[in-house]
Amino acid sequence: MKKIICYLLIAYPLHRATAQFEPNYDERKVPEFEVPDPLTSFDGEKITDTSEWENTRRPELYRFFEEQVYGKVPGKLDSLFFNIVEASENALDGKAQRKQVEVSLFKNGKSLAFTILLYLPKTGKPSPIFLGYNFYGNHTITDDTNVIVSQAWAMDNTEFGITGHTLTEASRGVRTNRWAIEKIIDGGFGLATLYYGEVDPDKNDFSDGLHSLFYKEGQERPKNDEWGSIAAWAFGMSRALDYFETDPDIDSARVLSFGHSRLGKAALWAGASDTRFAGVISNDSGCGGAALSKRKFGETVGRINTSFPYWFCDNFTEYTENEEALPIDQHELLALIAPRPLYVASAEDDQWADPRGEFLSARYASPVYELYGKKGITSNQMPEVNSPVQNTVAYHIRTGKHDVTHYDWEQYIAWAEKMVK
Ligand code: GCU
């Protein structure tokens, strides 16, 4: 008997812990919750015009996301340098211009560098561009042998021939399927990409990457309200934008921040924290990105804080298995991008990212767009698969899995042509 009681005492908490993290994929089990109103301030004031939004509500929402979710950037860089390390007028069979630009960041006597790969259409005019991170190095997005292989730490991936956390020729071109470069160029846009591992390696280790530049004497990790990896990646996108402002071939007022999955979360935070971005595209960004947290469908705050605690600031653990306590939800992150164009996309087989939660988030952000006379998502009904709704706030759910496809890019290009060209 003693043994059984002892077993029960030990097994119960374990069982509870695993049960908590069992993802819910059943719409009927989504808890009832109140959607925080983006147009009512924390102290209950109704927000009725854009000036109240910009002076009262947006700042308080922004502050919440900054201090409780993604974390604050702890200071300013000492200096920043750009160096065009390679360029060609004859890329992609003569169709495009290619540039590789090294961006060096300096702080507290330390430095970090990352390389932007750019393809620009040869239109003779400054080009609008899509800017997005890649997961395995700039050389993976194209077969172009001129693209420099990064020496930064990389996640191992045997399918892509990446071992020992080192990128080599073996992985050149392995991700061409995710980057519709020719379509982007033919649409009159440029593409800029960066390898996220050069800005902050994707591992639970704060000794390296961007964070380490900002430490005070003896500091080893960010403070509770300071940046995790998503905010560091967003900061890197803004430094790329600093470069674009100096390049006459780029129209820096028409840069769209783009990202898939964890990098979609970064693209959203970049667009929210840096209003110079002309618009944002979130591809399957899911939990901590476009998807509503309070639905607890697929990945939850508890789950993401367990698997990837370093993506967010430490304060965010307050909401682990405690989404009810959040005074905000992710639609308010989307609302921070208003009135700039915003595209949220999902994939039917990507239930982990909660497509319905991503759609509703775009819908619930829309009243802020309407305050500016912009059209958001006007229906509570999700569109059919492969039937995009493209207003200033756009949404589609396509068939297929968690990925970026040519279908996705065709939608982004067509929409961007209407929005920023
Ligand atoms: C994991 C993680 C997601 C993330 C995804 C990705 O699935 O749980 O939050 O979006 O990785 O980046 O591919």
Can you describe what's shown?
The protein is α/β, with parallel strands linked by helices. Strands 1-2-3-5-4-6-7-8-10-9 form a 10-stranded mixed beta sheet, sandwiched between helices. The protein has helices at residues 2-20, 50-70, 181-186, 196-199, 209-213, 229-244, 262-273, 301-307, 330-335, 355-371, 406-420, and strands at 79-91, 96-107, 110-121, 127-134, 190-195, 250-260, 279-283, 342-347, 389-390, 393-398. It folds into 2 domains: 1-56 and 285-402, no CATH class; 71-255, no CATH class. Helices cover 30% and strands 19% of the residues. Alpha-D-glucopyranuronic acid (GCU) binds at residues 261-262, 286-287, 299, 304, 307, 352.
Observed structural traits:
single chain; 421 residues; alpha/beta; 2 domains; 10-stranded mixed beta sheet; 11 helices; 30% helix; globular; disordered N terminus; binds alpha-D-glucopyranuronic acid
Residue-averaged pLDDT, rounded? Answer: 95
Hetero groups in this structure are:
alpha-D-glucopyranuronic acid
Question: Pairing-aware structural class of the strands and helices?
Answer: alpha/beta
The total domain count is: 2
